[in-house]
Amino acid sequence: MVKAEVKKSKRLFLYLRLGVVSLGIVCAIFWLRGEGRWANLTSIFGRMNLLVFGAVVLVFVFGQMIVGLRWWLLLRTQSIFIELLAAVRLHFLGLFYNNFMPSSIGGDLVRAWYVTRHTEKKFAAVLSVFVDRAIGLLSTLLIAIFFYSLFLRKKDLGLKFGSGGGLVKSIYDYKLVLLLFFGFLLLCFLVMVSHEKGRVLLKKFWSSISCYGFKIFGKFKDSAVLYCKKPAAILAVLFLTFFIQIMIITSFWYLGFSLGIDVSVKYYYVFFTLTWVLGAVPISIGGAVVVEGLLAYMFVHFAGVQSESALALALCQRVVWMLSSLPGGLIHLLGAHLPKEISIDYEGGMN
Prior knowledge:
There is one protein chain. The protein is mostly helical. The chain has helices at residues 2-32, 37-46, 50-77, 84-100, 107-115, 122-152, 166-173, 175-194, 196-228, 231-258, 265-279, 290-303, 307-334. Mean pLDDT is 79; it is low at 159-168.
């Protein structure tokens, strides 16, 4: 019964995400039908340099290989010694699932599932996937904050966090909604406590959380200690991440010039990184529509780019992602993501 409910909720969540993507596509089509926008968009794509576009695809593919290397380094800090090519193949497989498979199974979960086939250290292997994701998102956000503080802080981009506006002001404006929400949660808790069945359910829930929580916490602590003991590896991972992001975003800057977008690269470093972080929120399939909409909006309203040109750049990014993900589909068809034999895990770890 519980499994059926879980499957039902996952299916509903998938339908909602598909609905977000479908609604976004429909809105974009209706927008393009007015005021000659479709003709402007096709003319922008017509003057795009295909050699530059191809170079961007190659740069992105190379960047994903480096991401595979980054994950491989994280695995080695946990004394998980799978082959570098195996880590790269699994990364491309996850990339393919993220960009092509409209399912509730994300690319990180796919990587986490298949990397356990390569090693006996199941928990540490799965944890490395999410540490890799966290490092990627954190470094991306740091790049956005750095370039915003360095170049765009004096411009009004609506990114203020002070008491005069921005996030704090939004929280204050919606304080009644937040109070009602937390009040509702408190009321539900009190209702459950006041009934015997509710108290039994809460007790079982707390027992399960306590039992499994302490086990997972212990494993997580052991893994965290190993990561902390390898500062050189963590620094190498961070360096690789910054290098990847800067390289890929700079290539999109050249592609933007090919599309007729003549703005400074500093806008790219802030806008691309912000949309990548926000696109990681699972409200659509692979961030589709959300990333494109936010990126186009930022370039139009904060960099003064023509709306059709901004949309063309956002669509080019999506096409680059999808083309770069195709090797993952081939890897899946050939079964190259499955290990020929489980690797030997040593206790020494990476120096």
